[in-house]
Each structure stands twice: as C-alpha cells, then as structure tokens.
Specification:
There is one protein chain. This protein is of the alpha+beta class. The protein has two domains: 194 residues, no CATH class; 101 residues, no CATH class. Helix content is 42%, strand content 18%. It has 15 helices and 15 strands. Strands 11-12-13-14-15 form a five-stranded mixed beta sheet, covered by helices on one side. Helix 7 crosses helix 9. The longest helix has 18 residues. The radius of gyration is 22 Å and the shape is globular. It starts with a helix and ends in a 6-residue tail after the last strand.
C-alpha cells in the first residue's frame, strides 16, 4: 500500500467521497462518534458526508433525539447516535470516571456528592423537562451544592457518564445562537434497539474496533486506542473478537513496520480534477488518527498562527490551507456567508482555474448547507 492509497481509502471510508450517506443519521452511524465541541461546525461534519443534508436537517435530528451530544470517549463532546449511546456509554463509563478522578477530588465530587447531585439533576429533567446549563445549575445550587464553574461542569459530566443526563432539544438564544439543553438519558434513548443496549464488554469492544477501522481505516491499533481512550490491549481484543466473528470485515496492510486495518472501498479513484474539502478543525478526518495523522501532509497549521483561521482546507485529501466563516447582512435577503480561505501561494489567474473551480464548488456546498449564499471574502488568499 502506498501513501496515496491511505489517503484515498480514508476519504472513501469516511464518506468524504461517494457514495455519500443518505442522511446525517447514517453518516453518524458509520463514524460511530463525531467530535462536537463546536456545534455549528460539527453539524457540517455530518452534512458534508451526506447527499443533501442541511444545517436544519442535522438540528432536527438532534432535536428529535436521534443524534445526541454528550461527553464520551476521551472524554470530550461528541455526537453519538441514540442506537449506540447506551452500549458505548456503558463501555466507557468506568474508564472515564477513573480519568476524571483527579478533577473530581479537586472539585469536591466524591461518591456521596455525585449520588446526591445525580438525584437532584435527574429530578430537574424528569417528565420530559429539558434544561439549559443555567437552568440545570439552579437546582443543585438550591440543594446546597457549590455548582459553579469547573465544579458544575464536572457534576454535569459525571451525570452524563453515569447515564443520568444527555442532550435535549437545542434552543436559540436571543441572538439566534443554538444552545445545548440537558434531558433525562433514559427518556432520550428510548428508541434505541433493545439488543444494542445490553452488549457485553467483549461485544462492545468488538463493535467499537471493527466500526472504527471500517469508517477510518487504514489506521493502526494505536490510532484507535488514542481516538477511543481505550487501552491498546482492549483494542487488540476487540479486533480479535470482531474478526473471529467476521473474518472478512477488515483487510490489513503493513507500512513501515506498522499494521494498518481497513475496509477496501469499491473505488480508489480521486478523480482527474482537483477536489477541495472545507473540513472543521475537529473533523474525524483529522481527529480520528494519532500516530498516522502525518498522511494528511500539507503545510496548513494544526493550530492557528498569526490570526490564521482554525479550520482546515483539504486538497485531494491533504492539508493545503485554512478557513473560517463569518455572516454579513445581505440587504433585504437576510444574511450571507463570507469565507476567509487561506491557500498559500494560490492567486487568481489562468494557471489556477481548476483550483478556483474546486474552491467555488466547495463553497457552494457549504452555502447550500447553511441555506444562504456563500462567497469568498475579498482579498489575498495566500
């Protein structure tokens, strides 16, 4: 396997290349979990892997509870499908509580405090009540808990990891920004298939390992361990069990002494014309790897430098620049999106016509997602 094959297969596995997912739900089921610190951009991560999904489509799936946003895996915010959250939470919870133990101690969260706080939080969201963070904080504060700052964040996270809370229906602030709410875990995952809520640890390890490599391969055991927060021993066990049950689920290839696992797509062609993808900085194409992230290549900063945008521009699957969006008034038509795209060395001119066309195709896709015109911010792109 050559480095270009790694890039091509990853693009196909992650559904950044055809065939796209039918819905945002399907895109999420393929990826199992999608990092979602930045809710607006996390919506885009799902939508750009589907045929025609818009921001409204993803928001509706979150409102309906098919897609839930919670702390899981390392832990950090992730989108997880309702069908997968019960077993994924059960698999992750013991390790996540161990990971958070130091912060629990610093913020005074012992087992008794956590249990009492969980009961208060559960009562606050009972019978279909969905609470914003501020509304939720008021309940433990009334009960005598010092629920502010980091302590509040970890009381809520403890309740998420323990299966008490998960995300509710988002609400819009007075300024129009979407805000997270919290709801009862059991109420929001009621539609999950019963068989998926009762997997053994071994079954859960097998499901996680196989689905990770089928959606992100070619990747290594270390990549999967760092993405999931599991130990390498657990990943190897999950792989062994998964391949024992279905030997054809994955293929392997050795590169520079490392074994890569993957599902071979039907086609490895990137096409003849250049392809630009605007991916958010926490996209799974970037965050899904650790030791093999170098296949992204390119010269774009992994973190913003000198005021550069944070999000990544991919050129045929490799990092080539950075981008961000802003919204401006569009007269009586409402808003339009302006994209600040930095592609070092690119200038308007005949020699860059193919690149310009690729960039404008990706911008049009982003505008369709937002439901508003999208244009390039005037000025130099270098």
């Amino acid at each position: 396997m050559e480095p270009e094959d790694v890039v091509r297969i990853r693009l196909a596995s992650q559904q950044l290349r055809a065939p796209a997912a039918a819905t945002a739900d399907d895109a999420l089921k393929n990826l199992l979990a999608v990092q979602a610190q930045e809710f607006p951009y996390a919506r885009w991560s799902l939508a750009q892997r589907t045929a025609d999904a818009t921001a409204d489509d993803v928001e509706q799936a979150v409102a309906d509870g098919r897609i839930l946003r919670t702390h899981i895996l390392r832990p950090t915010w992730h989108f997880v499908h309702r069908d997968d959250l019960p077993w994924l939470r059960a698999l992750s919870a013991p390790r996540l509580h161990r990971t958070n133990a130091g912060t629990y101690r610093r913020t005074g969260i012992d087992s008794e405090t956590a249990a009492k706080s969980a009961a208060v939080l559960a009562a606050a969201v009972a019978d279909g009540a969905h609470r914003t963070r501020e509304q939720l904080a008021a309940e433990p504060q009334r009960a005598g808990f010092a629920a502010t700052g980091l302590g509040l964040a970890y009381l809520i996270m403890h309740a998420e990891i323990s299966g008490v809370l998960t995300s509710g229906v988002p609400v819009r602030s007075a300024g129009g920004a979407l805000r997270q709410t919290y709801a009862a875990f059991d109420e929001r995952v009621q539609g999950a298939p019963p068989g998926l809520t009762a997997l053994s640890k071994e079954e859960s390890l097998a499901a996680l390992a196989v689905r990770y490599f089928r959606s992100r391969g070619p990747a290594t055991v270390k990549d999967c361990a760092d993405w999931s927060g599991l130990t390498m021993a657990d990943v190897r066990l999950g792989l062994a069990l998964g391949l024992e049950a279905n030997p054809a689920a994955l293929e392997t290839s050795t590169i520079d002494g490392l074994t890569f696992y993957f599902r071979a797509p039907d086609s490895l062609s990137l096409g003849r014309r250049p392809r630009i993808d605007l991916v958010q900085c926490y996209d799974e194409y970037i965050m899904g790897y650790s030791v093999s992230r170098h296949y992204l290549g390119g010269s774009a900063p992994a973190y913003p430098l000198d005021g550069a945008p944070l999000h990544m521009v991919l050129l045929d699957g490799r990092m080539a620049g950075s981008w961000r969006h802003s919204f401006v008034r569009n007269g009586s038509a409402g808003q339009r999106c302006e994209l600040d795209v930095r592609l070092p060395g690119m200038r308007d001119g005949p020699g860059d016509e193919a690149m310009n066309q690729a960039l404008h195709r990706s911008m049009a896709q982003y505008g369709d997602f937002l439901g508003m015109p999208a244009s390039l911010r005037s000025g130099d792109r270098s």
